[in-house]
Amino acid sequence: MTRRLGCKIPNAGPTPARLGIAAMASAAEEAGATSLWVPDHVVLMEEVESRYPYGENGLPRRADEDYFHPLITLAWMAAATSSVELGTAVYILPQRNAVEVAKILSSIDALSGGRVALGVGAGWCREEFEVLGADFRSRFRRLSEQLVVLRHLWRGDGEPFEGEFHTIPKGTYSLPKPANPYGPPLLVGGMAAGPLERAATLGDGWLAIVPDGSADLGEVESALAQVLELRRRAEIDRPFRTTVRLQVPAGADHREAPRSGAARLFEMGFDEVIIDPGWRSIDDAQDVIAAVRSESLD
Question: pTM value?
Fold first, then answer.
């Protein structure tokens, strides 16, 4: 697969108001990014027992900041761009109704000309699940079935589906169909054995994360080899992609860290690296994106 350069677009905190989500999306596309990605939370709380696995203080960010809905953000960015892929990294699918998500995603995909990708995760915050009325304990089984349900609905053939969590009667349709007959690519996020197996057997790709520069790249490389071997054994005749989200360590050079980190991850064999260009300003972020593209893609 041709190397691809992804870019994180902030949909939380003060940056969306300061720079504008549409302006950042358009600028990233102009600078050479091939995909744009946003994270997901419905609610955040000031005090929780659950601990965020990819941060030092156990929380992804402050609870009292703006956090725009990721799928609405994808639609907004689709209108501001023309060719980049638009994805979530990652969308906590077990908190949602998969039938409604299928409808929203197929609508955005059809309207954007087939430019949507859905990166999904099982979630880590039990308290957020409880606020949404979703069962935290069954999230892994629910996620696996939801991936099947999305594909089932995107086929648009009206056939029935019966699973542990979903019953879809014959003659049920959720239109429009996505632009791609098979639907948007489904990338499964996570670094443990379960997500690797789920990505290889039920997904169209794996979405890894290198958190704050603290991850052992040897472990990341080993996980990459594992998921590719699992996919080979699954003998699924569809393209499979490996994507990794590179977080910039706190205090690191926001211009140099994405450049050196992306180069290492591409050399490791990843098809796509998602960088965070810092977004100090539009011009500064464009310089970072262009530099990484020049050094790793062109």
Answer: 0.94
